[in-house]
Design goal:
The complex is a heterodimer of chains A (about 350) and B (about 425).
Chain A: H1 2-12, H2 14-32, H3 37-56, H4 58-63, H5 72-88, H6 93-121, H7 126-147, E1 166-168, H8 176-179, E2 183-185, E3 188-190, H9 192-210, H10 212-222, H11 224-229, H12 234-260, E4 262-264, H13 273-282, H14 292-316, H15 322-342
Antiparallel strand pairs in A: 1-4, 2-3
Helix pairs in contact in A: 2-14, 3-9, 3-12, 3-13, 3-14, 5-6, 5-7, 5-12, 6-12, 9-10, 10-12, 13-14, 13-15, 14-15
Chain B: H1 2-16, H2 19-25, H3 27-43, H4 47-66, H5 69-73, H6 82-99, H7 103-131, H8 136-158, E1 181-183, E2 199-201, H9 202-227, H10 237-258, H11 264-267, E3 273-275, H12 276-294, H13 296-306, H14 308-313, H15 318-344, E4 346-348, H16 356-366, H17 376-401, H18 404-435
Antiparallel strand pairs in B: 1-4, 2-3
Helix pairs in contact in B: 3-17, 4-12, 4-15, 4-16, 4-17, 6-7, 6-8, 6-15, 7-8, 7-15, 9-10, 12-13, 13-15, 16-17, 16-18, 17-18
The chains are: A mainly alpha (about 350), B mainly alpha (about 425).
C-alpha cells in the first residue's frame, strides 16, 4: 500500500500534490464561507485562458534546452508594440486584435533570433542572464514609451509627453476573444473564444513538436552531445526554440491584455516571467522537460489557487493583500524547488 | 647577452601592461567613467552638491557592496541573497524601534540582535545553495524573493494576530500588520546614530590621513627591508608612485584649504563633513576582507573557489566552507543594511530590502569585478561610479529630454543591463576557455 502511495507521489510530484490539496482545501473553505462559487469558477476559467499562452511560451524554450524563459519580457514587449501600433493605425474590433498579432510577429521573430544567438554564447548561465536582460529591456522600453512618436489620443497623456501607464481597450480589442461565443452554464461564464484560442495555440505547439524540426529541437534539448553526434545543429535548434518562445510571449500578452481590458506599459512586464515559470513547474515540468499537459494543469492550478485564495483571504483577514503574499511564497518556492532538482554538478 | 635578456624582460613587462588589454579588461569601468562625466556635464548640478551627496552615499552603501566579496572568493558568484541579510537587519530595527531604544545604544542593540538571525538565515541559504551547485546566483536571487514573501507574511499578517504587538505608532490602525514606513528620526529611532558621532571636514581628514599613510608606509617598508636578508632597494617604482600620488593629494588639499583666491563654488567643497565612525567601520570591513584571506579559512575559500574537486581531495569540507562564506556575507549584509537605514532615517518596511542586491551587485560589477574575481578597490570604485550616475541621471534626463522620469528609467536600465552584460560576458569567456 505505502509502496503504491510512494510511487504515486513520485510520479505526480510532491509539490503538485501539496498545491492541489491546498487548492481543494481553499475551495472547500470558500464553500463553507458561502462565497459566490459561480463567479469564482468563472474567474478561474478566465484567468486560465488569460495566462495560458504566456505559460505555453515556456514549452519550446525548455524543450530546446535553454531552460525556462526568464526573458519572457522580451516577447511581451514585442506584443505590446504590435498592439500599440494596431491602435495607432485606428483599427477597432477583432481586426485590431489580429492586426496587433501580425504586426508583433516580425518584431518577436527578430528579437527571438538575436536573443537566441546571445543565449548560444552563454550556455550554462541562461537563466540569470535572461532575467537581467529581461529587466533591462523593460526599462529601456520604458524610456521608449515616452519617446516613441505615438499620437493616438487614447494612448498618450493629455498633458506632457509619452504613453499612459495603462491604456483602456474598450474601443479597440478589449475582450474580443472573451466575448466570442460567450455562454453561461448556470451562472458560470465560459469565454469560449479565449479558451478556443488558447487550445489552438497549444495544438499548434503540439503539432510543431511532432514535426521533424520539433523532434530535432527536443533531441537537442534532451542531450546536446548525442544530438550533435546524430547530425542535428544544436545551436540552430536552440535559436528556433527561443524564437518560438518569444513569439508565444508576444501572442500571450495580447491575449492577456484583451482579456484584462487594458494594456499595461512601463514596469508592468517586469515580473511577468516568474508566475509563468512557476505555473509550468507546478504543472510538473522540470527545467529540462516540459509538455503541453504540464502547461494546462499548471496554469489551472496556479491561477485557480490565486483566484480562490483572494476572496477567502479577504474573508479571514480584511487587511492587506494576503493573496499577493501567498503568490510570492508559492511562486518562488516552486522555482526554488525546481532549481534544487536541476543543480548538483558534482 | 645580458642586455638581450633585459630587453626581453622589458618586452614582457610591456606585454603585461599593454594598453589594448587594459582597455578590454576594464571596458565596463571605462565606459562608466565616460557616462558619468557626460551625466555630470549634462545635469549642470553644482560640484558641491554632487560631492557631498556622493560622500553620503559612499558611507551609506559601501558596506553592503563589500559584503559581496567573500562568496566570490569561494567561487559561489555574486550573492543575490544579501536581501535576506537585509531582512534580518530590518527585523532587528523594527524590534528596537518598538522598544523605544534610540541613538547609538539602539544601533548597537540592532547589531547584536540581527547577528543570530542573519547567521541562521545565512546558514539556511548556504544549505539551499549547496543543493543548487552551478546555479547559485539565480537560486540566491529567487531565495531572496521567496524570503521576501515570508517576511511580508510575518509583518503583514502575523503581527497583531499570532505575534502580540500593540504599538499605535508602528502597527496599522486595524491592529494587524506593521505600517509601510517607520520613522527612525533622532528622537524615536536610530537615525544618524553612527554618522553623527564624530563628523570632521573631509579635506582635513584627507590631509591628515595621507600624511599618516606616508609616515606609516615608509616606516613599514623601512622595517621590512631592515629585517629581510636580501638587499632589496628602498625606492622601488611602486613606492615612488604611491608617494607621488600622496603628495599630489596633499597639494590639492592644501590648495583648497589654505588658498583664499579660489572661486567660491569650489571653496564650498571644504565644508563637506565626513562621518568618521562610519568610515572607520567600513575600513574595518576592508581590513577584515584582507585579513581573512591570510587565515586558514580564507585559504579554504580560495581553494574551493578555484576547484571544488581538488579542494575535496585535499580534505576540505567543501559544503561547509561554502555555507560559511554565505553566512558571513549574509551577516555583513544585515549590518550593512543597518548602516544604510540609520543614514536614510526611514524604514520602508516592505521595500527597503528589495533592491539592495541589484544595486550592490551592479555597483561591484561597474567597478570592474567579475563573477570570479572581486577586490575591495573595485567595490569602492564601483560604488563611486554607480552613485554618481544615480545622483546626476534624473537631472540629466530632465535637461536632455525634458522629463526626469527618463533619467530614472535610464538608471534602472543601466543597473540591470550592466548585471546582465557582465554575467553574460563572464559566461561567454568561460565557454571560450572550456573550448580551448
Amino acid at each position: 500500500m505505502s509502496e503504491a502511495v510512494r510511487r504515486f507521489t513520485n510520479k505526480f510530484g510532491l509539490p503538485r500534490l501539496i498545491i492541489s490539496s491546498f487548492f481543494i482545501f481553499l475551495f472547500i473553505v470558500a464553500l463553507l464561507l458561502k462565497l459566490p462559487i459561480y463567479s469564482l469558477i468563472s474567474d478561474t476559467i478566465r484567468r486560465f485562458g488569460m495566462y495560458g499562452i504566456l505559460v505555453l511560451a515556456m514549452v519550446p524554450a525548455i524543450q530546446s534546452g535553454i531552460g525556462p524563459n526568464f526573458a519572457l519580457p522580451l516577447g511581451i514587449i514585442c506584443g505590446l508594440l504590435g498592439g500599440l501600433i494596431s491602435i495607432e493605425l485606428g483599427l477597432t474590433g477583432a481586426g485590431s486584435f489580429f492586426a496587433g498579432l501580425f504586426i508583433s510577429l516580425p518584431f518577436a521573430i527578430i528579437v527571438g533570433w538575436v536573443y537566441g544567438i546571445l543565449l548560444n554564447k552563454i550556455k550554462g548561465s541562461e537563466m540569470l542572464v535572461a532575467t537581467y536582460t529581461g529587466f533591462s529591456v523593460v526599462f529601456f522600453m520604458s524610456i521608449m514609451w515616452i519617446l516613441l512618436p505615438f499620437k493616438h489620443p487614447e494612448m498618450v497623456w493629455p498633458i506632457g509627453q509619452g504613453l499612459r501607464v495603462t491604456i483602456a481597450l474598450d474601443s479597440t480589442f478589449g475582450e474580443i476573444l472573451n466575448n466570442f461565443l460567450l455562454f453561461h452554464i448556470g451562472g458560470i461564464k465560459v469565454p469560449t473564444g479565449l479558451l478556443l484560442f488558447f487550445f489552438a495555440c497549444c495544438f499548434i505547439v503540439w503539432l510543431f513538436s511532432r514535426s521533424k524540426m520539433g523532434v530535432a529541437m527536443k533531441a537537442a534539448g534532451d542531450n546536446p552531445k548525442f544530438a550533435a553526434a546524430s547530425g542535428i545543429n544544436v545551436d540552430n535548434c536552440r535559436i528556433i526554440g527561443t524564437i518560438l518562445s518569444t513569439v508565444l510571449g508576444a501572442v500571450g500578452i495580447l491575449v492577456y491584455a484583451q482579456s484584462y481590458g487594458f494594456i499595461q506599459l512601463y514596469q508592468a512586464p517586469l515580473m511577468m516571467a516568474f508566475p509563468a515559470v512557476a505555473a509550468i513547474l507546478i504543472g510538473g515540468a522540470s527545467a529540462s522537460k516540459a509538455k503541453i499537459s504540464h502547461v494546462i494543469l499548471g496554469v489551472f492550478l496556479f491561477q485557480g489557487l490565486l483566484t480562490v485564495a483572494l476572496p477567502v483571504a479577504n474573508e479571514i483577514v480584511r487587511e492587506g493583500n494576503l493573496s499577493e503574499v501567498l503568490r510570492m511564497i508559492v511562486q518562488n518556492g516552486i522555482i526554488l524547488y525546481a532549481l534544487t532538482k536541476v543543480g548538483g554538478e558534482n | 647577452m645580458t642586455e638581450m635578456n633585459n630587453v626581453k624582460e622589458i618586452d614582457k613587462g610591456f606585454e603585461k601592461f599593454s594598453i589594448k588589454k587594459f582597455l578590454i579588461s576594464h571596458s565596463v569601468t571605462i565606459l562608466f567613467v565616460i557616462v558619468c562625466l557626460i551625466g555630470v556635464k549634462l545635469s549642470k548640478l553644482p560640484l558641491f552638491f554632487i560631492a557631498s551627496e556622493l560622500l553620503t552615499r559612499m558611507t551609506r552603501n559601501s558596506f553592503l557592496v563589500l559584503s559581496l566579496i567573500i562568496p566570490v572568493l569561494a567561487g559561489m558568484g555574486l550573492n543575490f541573497g544579501i536581501t535576506i541579510g537585509a531582512m534580518a537587519g530590518q527585523i532587528a530595527i523594527i524590534a528596537v524601534t518598538h522598544w523605544g531604544i534610540t541613538g547609538i545604544k539602539g544601533f548597537l542593540l540592532c547589531v547584536i540582535l540581527s547577528a543570530p538571525m542573519a547567521i541562521l538565515f545565512g546558514n539556511l541559504t548556504g544549505k539551499l545553495l549547496n543543493k543548487t551547485k552551478g546555479q547559485e546566483m539565480i537560486a540566491s536571487m529567487i531565495a531572496g524573493f521567496f524570503a521576501n514573501g515570508i517576511y511580508q507574511f510575518i509583518f503583514l499578517f502575523l503581527i497583531g494576530t499570532f505575534i502580540p504587538m500593540k504599538d499605535p505608532v508602528m502597527v496599522l490602525s486595524s491592529g494587524i500588520g506593521i505600517r509601510n514606513t517607520i520613522d527612525l528620526s533622532r528622537n524615536v529611532g536610530i537615525k544618524y546614530a553612527l554618522d553623527n558621532m564624530v563628523k570632521l571636514p573631509v579635506f582635513y581628514v584627507l590631509l591628515a590621513g595621507t600624511i599618516l599613510f606616508i609616515l606609516s608606509y615608509t616606516l613599514f617598508r623601512f622595517y621590512k627591508i631592515k629585517n629581510s636578508n636580501k638587499n632589496s632597494k628602498f625606492f622601488t617604482a611602486t613606492y615612488i608612485s604611491k608617494m607621488i600620488f600622496c603628495i599630489m593629494i596633499i597639494l590639492i588639499c592644501c590648495v583648497l584649504l589654505f588658498n583664499k583666491d579660489i572661486p567660491n563654488n569650489i571653496k564650498m567643497l571644504t565644508k563637506i563633513k565626513l562621518p568618521i565612525v562610519t568610515c572607520l567601520v567600513v575600513g574595518a570591513l576592508c581590513l577584515f576582507n584582507v585579513l581573512i584571506v591570510k587565515t586558514k579559512l580564507g585559504q579554504d575559500f580560495r581553494t574551493v573557489g578555484q576547484d571544488k574537486h581538488i579542494a575535496k581531495v585535499s580534505g576540505i569540507n567543501v559544503d561547509k566552507v561554502r555555507v560559511i562564506a554565505i553566512t558571513i556575507s549574509t551577516l555583513l549584509a544585515a549590518w550593512g543594511q543597518l548602516i544604510f537605514l540609520q543614514n536614510i532615517g526611514t524604514l520602508n518596511t516592505y521595500g527597503s530590502h528589495v533592491q539592495i542586491a541589484t544595486f550592490s551587485i551592479a555597483a561591484l560589477l561597474i567597478g570592474g569585478a567579475s563573477v570570479s574575481r572581486a577586490t575591495i578597490g573595485q567595490a569602492l570604485l564601483g560604488t563611486i561610479l554607480f552613485h554618481t550616475l544615480f545622483i546626476v541621471s534624473p537631472k540629466a534626463g530632465k535637461n536632455l529630454f525634458g522629463d526626469a522620469q527618463i533619467g530614472e528609467f535610464f538608471r534602472a536600465f543601466v543597473a540591470y543591463g550592466v548585471i546582465g552584460l557582465s554575467l553574460g560576458l563572464h559566461a561567454w569567456k568561460k565557454r571560450m576557455q572550456l573550448k580551448k
